[in-house]
Amino acid sequence: MNLLYISISGNTRAFVNRLHAYAADQPAKHTWSVKEIHDNSIFEAETEPFVAFVPTYLEGGNGVDNGDQEILTETLREYIDFGDNATHCLGVIGSGNKNFNYQYCLTAKQYAAQFDVPFLADFELRGTNQDIETIYSILKEVDTSAK
């Protein structure tokens, strides 16, 4: 299974790297590869299952009546939408800042709806150690069910 992510401020990158290191230290080894998608990424066909990690960056507003337009993370959406990539997506994990209330993880929820995959989990900013453990457990289940 692959872990695909986009990181603008470095928070998502830091979280995914910590998660990957945590997974490597666990007794049950998982062969998860990590791939960062960015504006200069060359789109390619994904051939293995993956989970997408996406932060939330939206244009102002409140996320209800307005301000629900994604900005800065569109490259990941386009990458998943490329070719048959979406058929390999097992779910989405979102991040954001809880100070933004309804907008918290809204981008990930939009991805989940667009690609008809589950919204698996969320974490705030760089996440906590508890978030790492929780999301690791969720990914183990997703990985096992994908096989």
UniProtKB/TrEMBL annotation:
User: What are the recorded GO MF terms, alphabetically?
Assistant: FMN binding
Q: InterPro entries in the record, alphabetically?
A: Flavoprotein-like_sf, RNR_NrdI
Highest taxon of the source?
Answer: Bacteria
**A Pfam family recorded for this sequence:** Flavodoxin_NdrI
Among NCBIfam families, the record links this protein to: PRK02551.1 (NF002714)
The protein depicted here goes by the name NrdI protein
* Native species: Candidatus Enterococcus testudinis
